[in-house]
Amino acid sequence: MKIIKYLLLTMLLAVLSVSAWIYYPQYQINKMKQETAPKVEKTNKLTYIDYYRTSPDQSIHHLALGDSIIRGYRIADEENFISQFSAQLGNETGKQVVSNNEGIIGITSERLYHLVQEGMYDEAIKEADLITVNVGGNDVLKAVKQSDIYSALTSFDSLQKSFSENLTGISARIHELNPSATIVLLELYNPMPADHQFYSLADKLLPKWNLKIYEVAKATPSSIVVQTTNVINSNNLHYLSPDGVHPNPIGNTAISAQMLEQFQQQHKADAVLANREN
């Protein structure tokens, strides 16, 4: 009887441990989103849009670093979300937005980390008011190409660790060079249809990956994470190009709209506002 109770208790603890491993990252992400959500009460803080609208500068420099999501994959330059958001930001603020898209198709977080550390973008970073970074998807795709989807998913922890270290280094270097710039990061999204054999597993692992992005943003002043998973998901597969991975023109429009909505609602960090006044 004691053995049976012991086995049942062990099974219960195992189930609870697995549940915590799966759901705790999403809980943490939701908590961080609530911390940056607009409050009902009045605030003296400026939203990102208000911050740029009231800036004494007549132009806004928008630098974009990262992969094919940044560059735009097999679409016109004006259709990628960087170009679309820059145009919308200009309309919202009444300022000229100068966009510099340095996206590189196929780049991994490790490669971008080394380019940033080697000073490839130093001058552009120093000049920028807004720096959008998206990287990490190719880390996963590279692992899949070298083996298969299952192997890539089972090696998730090591992939995530390397990605987290690279993104931390990229963000820290950007902030070191330009403490006043807004750093925009994007969630990694799951492009698989709901009936794909690996959809459920990928959907459970995704919050663990995105949690690292939120942690990097939280540790870096004046950073914001675009909630890409709100718009690119199994309910909106029409936002994807024929390859089933990259957003098509309307998918880029959806990402740009999500980014603009957060800029209209979330607030610029106090430390950055203080830098403007000094």
UniProtKB/TrEMBL annotation:
Please list the residue ranges annotated as the SGNH hydrolase-type esterase domain.
64-252
Q: Which InterPro entries match?
A: Ester_Hydrolysis_Enzymes, SGNH_hydro, SGNH_hydro_sf
What domain of life does the native source organism fall in?
Answer: Bacteria
Q: Which GO terms describe its molecular function?
A: phosphatidylcholine lysophospholipase activity
Q: What is this protein called?
A: SGNH hydrolase-type esterase domain-containing protein
Origin species, per record, is Mesobacillus subterraneus
